[in-house]
Amino acid sequence: MAGVKVPRNFRLLEELEEGQKGVGDGTVSWGLEDDEDMTLTRWRGMIIGPPRTIYENRMYSLKVECGPRYPEAPPFVRFVTKINLNGVHNSNGVVDTRAVSALAKWQNSYSIRVVLQELRRLMMCKENMKLPQPPEGQIYTN
Amino acid sequence: MEDNGGEDPVNNNNNTTVSSEGSIIKVTVKTPKDKEEIAISEDASVTQFKEEISRRFKAKQDQLVLIFAGKILKDGDSLNQHGIKDGLTVHLVIKTAHKAGDGASSSTSCTSQVGSSSGSSSGPSSAAHSSSVGSTGGPVSAPPQTPNILTGFGDLSSLSSMGMGSANFMELQQQMQSQLMSNPEMLSQIMENPLVQNMMSNPDLMRQMIVANPQMQQLMERNPEISHMLNNPELMRQTMELARNPAMMQEMMRNQDRALSNLESIPGGYNALRRMYTDIQEPMFSAARDQFGNNPFSALGGNSDGGVQPSRTENREPLPNPWGPPSSTDPSEGGGGTGTTGSSTAGSTNPSVSNPLAVNSASLGNGMFSSPGMQSLMQQISENPQLMQNMLSAPYMRSMMQSLAQNPDMASQNPASSPSTGTNPAQQLMMQQMLQMFAGGNASSQTPEVQFQQQLEQLGAMGFINREANLQALIATGGDVNAAIERLLGSQPS
């Protein structure tokens, strides 16, 4: 089946289903922002802060936007919950594509789940796991 | 978007149960550790859902955080609102003081894990007791020195507390070492450990550790050049830089090998090399192969002649473990002109200054046996049960024996090369002393002649009239008459 290009909507529906069924280890969650969104573009993600890091016990909300060229093109990801993490813009929570390897080296077999899990892994890295964080519950306004 | 194979969860109502108002749906509630199926009315509110969950999970309602499809379910919402239907999964996080419901992912691919756990273990002071650090986490000092480098690697601190000061300790060390060798990733992880790096960047500390090794002390007495080297901070720093960076080390070794082969071609260079080898390398060689651990400076180029500068630097080739499995170092390019060990020819690498233990990655186990000294050692220990016990305290010995057994050619070649051993009394003396150390640490102060008086007589009675050769053979085999006989027979054309 290598090389078969799965149409965008099929892919996204599949991901939607996976999100609702809780595929994965339960540390990230994702789903449509708006259930009526027929274009399946705007998604919401949630990352549970990994233990033994400063992000522990916190839930980070994200917005994921899958453009028309998804899955050939990577999605746009931005944090809604304020976070101090390398690769995330301090002012608006936008995730820098170059900082996240899943985005920088995007493959069409990747998915929203992969991106969320990678972000979570980044939280566990030495350079990130101790960064001081803003108070819980704050969100980016722009 | 209409039905898609009947599984369109967005808009469609797939009621498997009685289709009436407030039908019960089964929702899976998943924590990172747990999974429960909860039956709830599909019209229920999130609050009601949480009530049910708190009962099932034995947690307080306000500790519960529910996530569905990337959104947090607020108490005021209803399940319907979020599209939660039968058979779907909701994620649960229980906010406890000690993280009960949190992402229990242990899949930390970062070295942070190693770093954080080793930070909590005993610091460098304990490592100061260990003598050889250059071998990244490799086997360390004699068993009496209990805290060792393993305690510096937090994850393994539990190892270091087991079987300390006994044969088991060695076993563990060797196991770890072999693991390290076979897993370069782990090696680099350990190297990247800030603790290790700190240790290595402190030349004083390194020197202390190295000097603490009694073997090294002996060596230093015999060869003042070594102490000179140790006291040269620049050199130490460079060496440690090397040790820290395995890639650089390989590069360095390649350069060394090349330099050595060049040196060999200089008229008179061969002799210089040879001298260098016998004076310095042999003692290091045997010291390195000592039971009590590896000496990091297993090869020294104390080159007094020829002016080749790279050979001056210590070779901190990781883990020159003669007993161990193949290391990832590159094979010497045949450049080491140190034929004095008389290494057998086929398929083995001549020990060179930079590759002292003839680490030929192609045929590692065999390379080890290429030295006739080794061979006699093997024979010796098979006779002497105490020695045997010491040696076999590590399981890897067995595998080595096996490889030797599988390669009878190698074994037969060794006696043939004994003449060269015979020409090097210094080496034999080293071997002999080493063997004695194995057997219980008494260095012999008698001359070999006196010591082997009895054996010499035996040999004479059997018809070996060449006393000189007998003596040589006995020295080489450490007093083992049978082995000596074989030696003598092997060297004579029959």
From TrEMBL, chain A:
Keywords: Ubl conjugation pathway. It comes from the Eukaryota. This is Ubiquitin-conjugating enzyme E2 variant 1. InterPro entries: UBC, UBQ-conjugating_enzyme/RWD. Residues 7-142 form the UBC core domain. The keyword Repressor does not apply. It holds the Pfam family UQ_con. The keyword Manganese does not apply.
Automatic annotation (TrEMBL), chain B:
It is found in: Chromosome; Cytoplasm, Perinuclear region; Endoplasmic reticulum. Homooligomer. Binds signal sequences of proteins that are targeted to the endoplasmic reticulum. Interacts (via UBA domain) with GJA1 (not ubiquitinated) and with ubiquitin; both compete for the same binding site. Interacts (via UBA domain) with ubiquitin and with polyubiquitin chains. Interacts (via ubiquitin-like domain) with PSMD2 and PSMD4, regulatory subunits of the 26S proteasome. Interacts with ATXN1/SCA1; interaction with ATXN1 inhibits polyubiquitination of UBQLN4 and interferes with PSMD4 binding. Interacts with HERPUD1. It comes from the Eukaryota. It comes from Hucho hucho (huchen). CDD domains: UBA_PLICs, Ubl_PLICs. One of its GO terms (biological process) is DNA repair. Keywords: Chromosome, DNA damage, DNA repair, Endoplasmic reticulum, Isopeptide bond, Phosphoprotein, Ubl conjugation. Its main location: nucleus. Residues 451-491 form the UBA domain. Residues 7-23, 102-140, 341-352 have a biased composition (Low complexity). GO terms for cellular component: chromosome; cytosol; endoplasmic reticulum; perinuclear region of cytoplasm. Residues 1-23, 101-154, 289-359, 405-425 are annotated as: Disordered. One of its GO terms (molecular function) is polyubiquitin modification-dependent protein binding. This is Ubiquilin-4. InterPro entries: STI1_HS-bd (IPR006636), UBA (IPR015940), UBA-like_sf (IPR009060), Ubiquilin (IPR015496), Ubiquitin-like_dom (IPR000626), Ubiquitin-like_domsf (IPR029071). Residues 25-95 form the Ubiquitin-like domain.
